[in-house]
Amino acid sequence: MVVAWAAVSMGFVGVLWLLGAKGEASLRPGLAAWESRGDLDVDTLPGVGLLTRISILGFPLHWAVVAIGCVAAFIGLAVVYNMYVDARVESARDVMAPNGPEG
Amino acid sequence: MSSIEFGLEPGFKLGPAIVLALSLILFVVVGLSSRARSEEEFWVAGRDVGPVSNGMALAANWISVGSFLGLAGLIYLQGFGALAYVVGWTGGYVLLLVLMASQLQRFGRFTTADLVAERFDSTIVRSLTAVITIGIAVVYSVAQYQGIGLVFGWIFGLDYTESVVLGAIVVLGYVLLSGMLGVTRNQIVQYVILAIAFLLPLSFVANRAGYFPLIPQFGYGAAIDEIGNHPSSAWYDPLFVAPFAHRSAFGWISLTFTLMLGTMGLPHVITRFYTVGTERGARWSVVWGLLFIAVIYWAAPAYAAFARVFQLGAQPSESVADLVIIAATQLAGLPDWFAGFLAAGAIAAAFATTAGLLSAGAGAVSHDLYHNVFRPEAGPEERMVVARVATAGLGLVIMVLALRRPGLLVEVVGGAFALAADTLFPVIVVGIWWRRATREGAVAGLVTGLTLWSLSAWGGWYGGVGWIDRWLPIEGHSLLVVPLVFLVVAGVSLVTKPSADADAFLARIHGVSVEVRP
């Protein structure tokens, strides 16, 4: 479960980095960067690559996976884990019952 | 671009004020009708809250003004770089479910410090944990007061200082009157208000922007595509969509990691697992909580994208970022009451979270420090008085700090997560899962985490010191600090004597019967 959690949380972003262009990031790009945005070579921007060019439901794939898919996957993982624990608890209760599983 | 150009007109607004006043009256009525009458009701709502209700309260507790206003604001500024918050603020719940939810419910006391103090049989651990809990409550609440100030200021045409003071008085009065039972009931009402308030205007904004209005949280893909890939569009900005243009891959993962681990150390989240009656209920309330949180988090990026579309190529501005969802409704030309609805939702979010945080902080003062450390003979009534005085005192401290506006809403909230991740998370995890962990190890871990976080906070909010900014940025340093704290706890524990009661404690919280070693 923890491995699945790690894969959902960080795996996709790791792959995005591996397959994408490398470059400098800036949390607060200034006015000059804003005004020259039309001249940027998109293919050289950090992280742009195969996974950002694929489109799904109108979204670039990487946006859809991170903004929507990861959260849905977390909910799915939580449901699966709870169902697994419920099943384990139920079977342990059956075993501990006085007349065995049928009792 | 000024806030007026971006749709945020100054002056008093009657429609939004009426919507806000009605929702505040509703909170007070619900709070008063379910007022706490005993200590157990005050702290843990009588321990009889069901999983769906608890999930809703968990979500309301969680969706602070940072999520409601700040998340869309930061995505509006940074695009993909800010989606780390979406993943970080949801993924932690999966770990919380697997590592802690059942154990916390079985433990069933009042506060976070109760857990670690009993596990490590130590007053020093209790005191340190209580101080850290108070620190988290204060830092986190500062962002809530900031948000309340921004919204009150926009609605009533007040300046920032006046609106923060007004908001502080209202939220304090509400928490002092109701206590945790009122808080839990109110959080359910608040979740309903904030979810409707957030989602309903979004459909109308999407419609006005010309995008799919029925499920806009999944239908804004065309807007993202135009922003990122269409140079001919007026709102073209490839840096918004490029994955690591605003935040490096390391910074992204590091921030996500910090937020996820911080989730598991937040006292007002932990307390919610003491309010559920059964272990199964505690587990399933995580699923419900995540679902209710996701409903909001799926929608926040859509607001950010539509705000980019409506501003028609003007440079995104930090000065409007924290109110960008309100500005989006104004720019879309929607009637004022839509913005009023959003403002009421933002206030509901701020109230729910602040109430939970103030309860957790007051619990640390009254229950952990006053009763368990300084005055064990204090009776329930005396402790309740101390809790109420502590709530008022904390509220005043938070108000003073909020007046300084230390950063964007999300950045301040991120600081609280980092504090929880650096200190409480490692100690709680080893306390629950490693029988060899000792009280000396726990103290060393808490002190190490607190010291490194303090350095980071000082550098980030006051100092501007180069090496601290580089290696210990206030949001996102836990990827380095948490492993170090684990190493310190493990190292010190291995050279000190384990507690004789550890096995019995672990057997109780894991729900197993074991033979206690002599």
What's the layout of helices and strands?
The complex is a heterodimer of chains A (103) and B (518).
Chain A: H1 2-19, H2 31-35, H3 50-53, E1 55-56, E2 59-60, H4 61-96
Antiparallel strand pairs in A: 1-2
Helix pairs in contact in A: 1-4
Chain B: H1 14-33, H2 39-44, H3 51-62, H4 65-78, H5 83-107, H6 112-120, H7 123-156, H8 160-209, H9 216-219, H10 221-229, H11 238-241, H12 249-263, H13 267-270, H14 279-310, H15 318-321, H16 324-331, H17 336-374, H18 380-402, H19 409-422, H20 424-433, H21 439-463, H22 466-471, H23 478-494, H24 502-510
Helix pairs in contact in B: 1-8, 1-17, 3-8, 3-14, 3-17, 4-7, 4-14, 4-17, 5-12, 5-14, 6-7, 6-20, 7-8, 7-17, 7-18, 7-19, 7-21, 8-14, 8-17, 8-18, 12-19, 14-16, 16-17, 17-18, 19-21, 20-23, 21-23
> So, CATH architecture of chain B?
Up-down Bundle
Instruction: Tell me the major beta sheet of chain B.
Output: none
Low-confidence spans of chain B: 514-518
Order of helices and strands of chain A: HHHEEH
CA radius of gyration of chain B is 22 Å
CATH topology of chain B: Sodium/glucose cotransporter
Which regions of chain A are unreliable across 5 or more consecutive residues at pLDDT < 50? none
CATH homologous superfamily placement of chain B: Sodium/glucose cotransporter
Mean pLDDT of chain A: 83
Radius of gyration of chain A: 23 Å
Helix content of chain B: over 70%
- Total tally of structural domains of chain B: 1
- Order of adjacent strands in the largest pleated sheet of chain A: 1-2
Outline type of chain A: rod-shaped
Number of helical stretches of at least 4 residues of chain B:
24
Explain what this protein looks like in three dimensions.
The complex is a heterodimer of chains A (103) and B (518). Chain A is mainly alpha-helical and 103 residues long. Chain A has one domain (2-102). Chain A contains 4 helices and 2 strands. Chain A has a two-stranded antiparallel sheet with strand order 1-2. In chain A, helix 1 (2-19) packs antiparallel against helix 4. Chain A is rod-shaped and about 75 Å long. With 518 residues, chain B is an all-alpha fold. Chain B has one domain (14-412): Sodium/glucose cotransporter (Up-down Bundle), CATH 1.20.1730.10. Chain B contains 24 helices and no strands. Chain B has helices spanning 14-33, 39-44, 51-62, 65-78, 83-107, 112-120, 123-156, 160-209, 216-219, 221-229, 238-241, 249-263, 267-270, 279-310, 318-321, 324-331, 336-374, 380-402, 409-422, 424-433, 439-463, 466-471, 478-494, 502-510. Residues 514-518 of chain B have low confidence and may be disordered. At the A-B interface, helix 1, helix 2, strand 1, strand 2 and helix 4 of A face helix 5, helix 9, helix 10, helix 11 and helix 12 of B.
